[in-house]
Amino acid sequence: MFVSFVLMSLTVFATIILGVIFSNKRVMEHVSSPVKVGKRTLGINMVSLFSFMTFAILSLIPSGHAFAATANSAATSVAVTINPGLGYIGAGLSTGLASMGAGIGVGIAGAAGIGAISEQPDMLGRTLIYVGLAEGVAIYGLIISIMIFGRI
């Protein structure tokens, strides 16, 4: 588990460092196609992060030798060997993925709302409703993670 945590942390730090490097104008002047480099970097980052996350999830699954042969001892051994780490990963995924989806929705609705408000200022109330609806997705993810924490 520690190894997967270190690998995921290195991926996040590498992303931050690459962002700082690519924000430099001198570096971007020497790149022939910044869009291709950005897409390739993002793809490598996402693949590595999801592979490390899959490794972490698989390392949390209890092994099969912990289960006993009889029903009474099997129920006892299962209750003892269940690892709450999967619950923590589920809570993190529900909050993180819901927040990413809400961010995408708020970005799209906010950009369209700004365009609509610049043409017709009386549209402000309607656009705020759409931005609020998109933000509600993040709140649903947070509620699900709180429910998961309540069961751990």
Which descriptors apply to this entry?
F1FO ATP Synthase, flat, mainly alpha, 152 residues
Write the layout of secondary structure elements.
Layout: H1 2-22, H2 25-29, H3 34-60, H4 71-81, H5 85-119, H6 124-151
Overall tally of structural domains: 2
Q: CATH architecture of the largest domain, please?
A: Up-down Bundle
Which fold name corresponds to the CATH topology of the largest domain?
F1FO ATP Synthase
Q: Percent of residues in beta strands?
A: under 5%
The major β-sheet equals: none
Q: What would you call the structural class?
A: mainly alpha
Secondary-structure element sequence? HHHHHH
**CATH class group of the largest domain:** Mainly Alpha
Tally of extended strands?
A: 0
Q: What's the mean pLDDT score?
A: 78
Distance between the termini: 19 Å
Query: What proportion of the residues is helical, as a percent range?
Result: over 70%
Q: Please work out how many helical segments DSSP would assign.
A: 6
Radius of gyration: 22 Å
Q: Give the overall shape, derived from the CA principal axes.
A: flat
Q: CATH H-level name of the largest domain... which superfamily?
A: F1F0 ATP synthase subunit C
**Low-confidence spans: pLDDT under 50, at least 5 residues?**
none
